[in-house]
Amino acid sequence: MHTWLKNLKTPCYVIDEAGLIKNLEILRGLEARTGCKVLLAQKAFSAFALYPLIAKYISGTTASGLFEARLGYEHMSGETHVFSPAYTEEDFAELVKICDCIVFNSFAQWEKYKSAIPRNISAGLRVNPELSTQNHAIYDPCAPFSRLGATLESLKNKDLTGIAGLHFHTLCEQDSDALEATLDEFEKKFNYIFPQLKWVNLGGGHHITREDYDIERLERCIARMKAYGLQVYIEPGEAVALNAGWFAASVLDVVQNGMSIAILDASAACHMPDVLEMPYRPRIVGAGEIDEKKHVYRLAGNTCLAGDVIGDYSFDCELKSGDKLLFCDMAIYSMVKNNTFNGMPLPSIAVLRESGELEIIKEFGYEDFKGRLS
């Protein structure tokens, strides 16, 4: 077990600076070899205390709305991009002050706002290649009746003068073969627009920093778009902080009801929502699958939600009150999605520096819960 865990107050997210740098070096290498520009998709990782470090390696940030755009603009150098399914007039008036690129979801949104876009801002259109390459319907922008991206049919006979780039985002934790298949469809349907474009954005969902990811195929995909004379953007979120953090929790009690159930000071529903939504099963340091080790426990959250269950795991020794557990790969889609249901405290945020020093960068209390409600 990690020595720094012994005295750590839980619950707490711990960002692994060394792991983050390892990922960033891969992404910087991709930029250097291909000429593409990598943007941090803040929807997956928004721990802005690390933005100055990230800015040393990649080209900027991309946002899903005004608040994320402001965060990237204020705390990370480089380009600031934004996409939203639809913009309010109030938000758009602020976005044109801080963004380098604004991507629209429909021709109607582009028509509504194009006269308000200053010359220094590049305007893009998100398109839907209508090719599903994944099995997670909730995360599939190409699923039937998707609201995300303009279809080829919806753009028929439309004047796209002024659109400088096309954007698509269709992947979720996938390899580059899915991107290659998507490019086939994208190129077939939308190449008639290419001559007027300056850039293309291949979106996110690329697990570039996963050990078995086919990065050479990705580079071929980038070269394929560059052959049209286009600047290529790619906007990974998970790949930036993949396997670059943990979530520490403590056992509060163990109850019996047909099996041993360990109640933690943490919650799947509040602190790691993807466990319930995806569903996602995090690894735990020192734990195994049900049939691997002697003692089996169901790990459950400390809320009134009956389904607040993280999963069933096995351990070498019996769990007892006060024991600490370390969940892996918890830097992504955790801090950005957590909530205070039942008045559950928000976990602290810490950074394990390359030096081995553990630095607490944010703690939360009652006022953070109360302040959201009044």
What features would you describe in this structure?
The protein is an alpha/beta fold. It has eleven helices and 16 strands. It has helices spanning 17-34, 51-54, 66-75, 89-98, 107-113, 176-190, 215-226, 238-241, 268-271, 274-277, 366-371; strands at 12-16, 37-41, 60-63, 79-83, 101-104, 122-126, 165-167, 199-201, 231-234, 245-256, 260-264, 295-300, 309-315, 324-328, 348-352, 358-362. The strands form two sheets. Strands 1, 10, 11, 12, 13, 14, 15 and 16 form an eight-stranded mixed beta sheet that branches. The model has no long low-confidence stretch (mean pLDDT 97).
Question: In terms of topology, how is this protein built?
Answer:
Blueprint: E1 12-16, H1 17-34, E2 37-41, H2 51-54, E3 60-63, H3 66-75, E4 79-83, H4 89-98, E5 101-104, H5 107-113, E6 122-126, E7 165-167, H6 176-190, E8 199-201, H7 215-226, E9 231-234, H8 238-241, E10 245-256, E11 260-264, H9 268-271, H10 274-277, E12 295-300, E13 309-315, E14 324-328, E15 348-352, E16 358-362, H11 366-371
Parallel strand pairs: 1-15, 2-3, 2-9, 3-4, 4-5, 5-6, 6-7, 7-8, 8-9, 11-12
Antiparallel strand pairs: 1-10, 10-11, 10-14, 12-13, 15-16
From the structure above, extract its key features.
374 residues, alpha/beta, single chain, 22% strand
In short:
The chain contains 11 helices and 16 strands.
